[in-house]
Records
---
Amino acid sequence: MLAALSIASVACGKKGPPLAPIVHIPAAVENVEARRRGDEVSVTVTVPSKNIDGTIPVDVARIEVYGYTGTTAPPASRFLDVATLVGTITVPEQKPDAPPDAAPPPGTPVPGGTATIVETLTPDALVAKEIPPLPTTKRADTRPLPAAVSAQRAAPEIGPLRRFYYALAFSPRGRPSPPSAIGELRLTNLPDAPIVVEATFVADAVRLEWEPSGGLIGFLLERSLAPELSPLDDPLPEPASSSPTPAALQGPTRYNVYREIAPLETTTAPPSTENPADTPAPAPINPAPIDTLTFADLLTGLDGRRRCYVVRAVRGDGTQAVEGRPSEPKCVVPLDDFPPEPPARPTASNSEGAITLMWEPNAEPDVAGYLVLRGEAGDATLTPVTDTVVTETRFIDRTVRPGVRYVYAVQAIDSRLPRPNVSLESARVEETAR
């Protein structure tokens, strides 16, 4: 009996085979969107936020984006056989125990966020690529096909030319995620760049004007009525092309304005180490495409920096909107040479040994204060009462002599450096001291 117990005790302490390590695989990239701007396409993807088994943090190290051009998208199982690698988005390692102040820099891909990669369209990317048939190991069927089936197989694909995008997320060990949804971009002819862009600096804005895309002829053709066919006309059908080409543009021409501001001279930017593919595309300064030929870039402050503008024509709506190539840049250096308006409604009242002057405040946001001018009745020129700027809209002059009639005016002064702008004199008011 004791021997049996001893054997049972040894058996209970025996170790089993080692368990395989848990391998996390990121979930599929959910969203893939493509936007075209000239010869560049911005492909934006959503970084997976969890693994395929639902665990977090997600084990994702990079996202590879692939592109294919054709009239229809290839099956997801064959996309990599015919597509080309557009680029790779690097996702930094996520550390759950990282302190709050160790947040990644703006634009860094993070789980659940978006990341953008920019593809420059080459001539090859604008040509449809044939999807070869799957290899087969079965004996070839040499029997002739019915005529209808044979014609259907021989007919080329017909439809608008498109660029399709597909993304795969990879774990740090190189394990790929399931396939993403396929993003689609319709390839169309690009609208012409606007011409003769002019930039003019006014008091509080840079005003831009340009000629329409395609010039005056393009402007008139876009707005002219479609020609009507005569009942006697019998146009011949156009032959089908064996090679799909970019589709014609749809919708009215609108415009986006882009701005680039020179860095401050005192700012020294550190050398960039980021992947150019991870750099987001610039955004227009207008909130929505504009259908006019003018735009005003409002200025909130002037620091003497050079501002350069380009205008792009855009056709279509939503994700299928296509921007053309940029216009020639137009640059301007806004300098505040505009004096404030003269102060309004000055009034004067006297009291024993003093004259009080009051006026309405100026509306300009850069007004730093006011200059109070004084003279005696009959003087053509007034001089400042004090050597300092008056910051309020009320001034008490206690340097008056009883019985003398004084003339007053006020000037507004702004905050421009090194020499401020000074307004014209306000209306003059008179009062006799007592």
---
Amino acid sequence: MGKELIQCAKCRVKKKICQTEEGTGPSFCPTLNKHQAISQALEIYKDPQIREFARQASIQEGECYANRSFEEKTYTEPVKTRLQEVCEFAAKMNYKKLGIAFCNGLREEAMLLQNILEKQGFEVISVVCKVGGIPKEEIGIKEKEKIRPGQPENMCSPITQALVLNEEGTDFNILVGLCVGHDSLFLKYSQAPCTVLVVKDRVLGHNPVAALYTSGSYYKKLTQAKFGKGGAVKQNVSCQ
């Protein structure tokens, strides 16, 4: 038999060992089995900068709820938007210069974000995905692979975005709507820590979790059709 996969998303244990010392876990539980990784992480957290970053992130998490109490039955009420969290966390970390890496399709949202961050007292550097004006042919894109074949199209260059923000010395970078894969490259090459404010979803108004909520109804095709390199294999999926 092969090595058992870690599948925390499929854990159905009610009293989980990752949440309480009296808990337990399934056979694939990393809290029970991955002692080396856990110990290695604890060593990394001993770095003063990493420790402070993690500490402030945990404090920020707690402050997002009202009615916190030692009583288990007390209802904790969420009270802060993610945008407010970003502002507060950056202030907690004493960051002065923030970077925004945004998609050209979300330029208005990026402008609103920059204005808000500046009102909060931060210096803001914002860089659009098309920075550099590099033709898509530079990375081997064929004419038929363009959004509008037959017309000039410049590529999104998240690596350029990251390098520009690196040169500007940003303390903290915020992603706004970068495409799948482009966001990965930005995160790989950014020297400053990053957070994601907006995730691009062209169909669902940048709310990709809606596809999860409707995967048993309107978006049933997500579980009934095989998605390959060129899109979904056609299936007879009934409309609801």
---
Amino acid sequence: MRMALEGIKVVEVSTWVAAPVCGVLLAEFGADVIRVEPLQGDPVRGLLPRGSSVEAFNPWWEMWNRSKRGMALDLGTPEGRQIVHRLAAQSDVFLTNLRPSVLERAELDYEKVREISPRIIYAHITGYGTQGPERERPSFDALAFWTRAGFPSVLGEPDAPPVALEGAMGDHPTGGLALAGIALALYVRERTGVGQKIDVSLLGSGCWVNGVDLQWALAFGSDPPRFPRKQAINPLSNSYQARCGRWLRLCMMESDRYWPAFCAALGRPDLEGDPRFGSHFQRAANREALISLLEEIIATKDRDEWAPLFDEHKLPWDPVQTMTEVAQDSCVLANDYITEYEHFGGRRVKSIASPVRLSETPAGVRQGAPEHGQHNEEILLELGFTWDDIERLKEKRAIL
């Protein structure tokens, strides 16, 4: 079966995570993605679990770079730049997250790459956008996406320290937005023959993902109200701890609709007629009393005992799961959100599958992530270099 992006060639000159996330999504829909990294290797190669040896398997490098081919070269040399120029000349997409000045020094800015390949789709992921005084400011998603876009101001208890971003939470959606931009640009090129540049930033992505609260500020000129858990405006959209110590989350946004069934599930039909809680607005006005009461009731049973009762009454809720619980979740497994494949050397690898599903041209892992410079010779030969050329490039330290 032909894959969705089969025949599309991508050169990815990137570092860390956001652009590689986009690259792996492209690769697993069939694009030939060539990941170019420096001679010293991408910093992600050094991310290993605490206590691991240098030779340990790196699951994060694998997740963000599987299904690609890999090259290691020095963009500071004319020869290294020439190789990437020749790659760009034969590619449909140029994907990068290097800073503008770095790209200009390497002669890989949009203007230069467009000269080489006028029909190229040039996707540039930055921290703070390509305009304004901070276009050169280096960043990570913990900064530009999370902190700068205001997530800590709306999450957690109001008086608690800022909630920190955990593990590439901003890089993943930003890479997905870049994928969407590339797909749109490829569609436009198919119709018009015109290539174009795509700009996606961690800050812009953060503003979009945090859009509900940012929209409040735009509409009303103030920060959205923030309440501690024990004062949640809607007690039926809140978190509670069961007797076993595990937490569950209720999400009954239309609380009047669910209130009778919720009282029945709790085994407290008497609450339905309690005048303090007779409507959404009355429950909001008496929320501290209701939250305290619900805490007491939910603490009388284990979470696994509440599960069938809430499900029987068709209440919107979910368990607050640990990562090991997510990895074993029946819904996750039934939908193949976890994939398994054979890596180089026979290792079986479990990893997160592409979140985008196409019924007729599905994504799939094509191979493990490349070793450092694994495909240098293979790709150079495809570009027309000879073995003598490759030897000279190695002598000049232009390639690994």
